[in-house]
Design brief:
Distance between the termini: 44 Å
CATH superfamily of the largest domain: NAD(P)-binding Rossmann-like Domain
Order of helices and strands: EHEHEHEHHHEHEHEEEEHEH
Number of domains: 2
Shape: globular
CATH architecture of the largest domain: 3-Layer(aba) Sandwich
CATH class of the largest domain: Alpha Beta
Bound molecules: guanine
CATH topology of the largest domain: Rossmann fold
Length: about 290
């Protein structure tokens, strides 16, 4: 069984990005600049955004953190998005989700100039990805593809089962695994209305779990020799930990891992790759790689 080390892979990729950025700067080009908007004080979002800013430093990017209190109006937020759209110094930006309930996430996402949408959430990027055109691809599925590639996991002609159909992970993941000259897999998406979920999962050569239910994937759902990718990062109360919680994946790691060809741990698997792919998207934005 191979343990897929997302933390180490992400560190390698960030070092590669840093090298590229210093080369760009030495040639007189501008440092890529990522801005992040954070609304409120949700613990998870605070951590993600802090880690994104730290990753920018590691990659040699400029970063800007723009904070609003929970009661910011949608109008105010949309105005700031428009200013970032117009700001030539900002190559790409993100609005950390979730947003407070009084703000429409979809309206905010659609207000972002798709050429700066390094999260890859804008419908233009989602649509272009679906038909295989150059675009910003959302970071988690992009990171999973990169892990599979760097660990030489064959996907072409294989059966891939994606558990979960979210817009951020499940759906784009399935599209990418299906894509010609990319995943080239035969793809099944399993969700809450699927019948015989365990039986579907057992067919998978590559099983990607993204449902946010700790330990949902048990050993009887996994074909021996499968590659298992665990996207789950649910905070589970744990009094023995300094922060009072631990992160739990969607896979019963202890019992599933011995069956696998390869598996990602939680933490240290998919998570670190997600931020790293945001950095790759920001580099591409800085180089105007997809859009002028
Ligand atoms: N919230 C959880 N994941 C993400 C992400 O990848 N991007 C943004 N903007 N918000 C998130």
């Amino acid at each position: 069984m191979t343990l897929i080390d997302g933390k180490a892979t992400a560190a390698t990729i960030k070092a590669e990005i840093k090298e590229e950025v210093e080369r760009m700067v030495a040639e007189g080009q501008k440092r890529p600049h990522l801005a992040a908007i954070l609304v409120g004080h949700d613990g998870g979002s605070e951590t993600y955004v802090r880690n994104k800013v730290l990753a920018c430093e590691a990659c040699g990017f400029q970063s800007s953190l723009i904070r609003y209190e929970e009661d910011v109006t949608e109008e105010e937020l949309l105005k700031r998005v428009e200013e970032l759209n117009q700001d030539d110094d900002v190559d790409g930006f993100i609005v950390q989700l979730p947003l407070p309930r009084h703000i429409s996430e979809q309206r905010v996402i659609e207000a972002i100039d798709y050429r700066k949408d390094v999260d890859g959430f804008h419908p233009v990027n989602v649509g272009r990805m679906a038909i295989g055109l150059p675009c910003f691809i959302s970071a988690t599925p992009k990171g999973i593809l990169e892990l599979l590639r760097r660990y030489n996991v064959e996907t072409s002609g294989k059966k891939c089962v994606v558990l979960g159909r979210s817009n951020i992970v499940g759906k784009p993941m399935a599209q990418l695994m299906l894509q010609k000259n990319l995943g080239d897999s035969t793809v099944t998406i399993v969700h809450s209305h699927t019948q015989n979920i365990a039986e579907e999962c057992r067919q998978a050569d590559i099983l990607i779990a993204a449902i946010g239910r700790p330990g949902y994937v048990t050993a009887d759902m996994v074909k021996p020799g499968a590659t298992v990718i665990d996207v789950g990062t649910t905070r589970v109360p744990d009094a023995t930990r300094p922060k009072g919680f631990r992160l739990s994946g969607d896979v019963d790691f202890e019992n599933v891992a011995p069956l696998c060809n390869a598996i990602t741990p939680v933490p240290g698997g998919v998570g670190p790759m997600t931020i790293c792919m945001l950095m790759l998207n920001t580099l591409a934005a800085g180089k105007k790689e997809y859009y002028k």
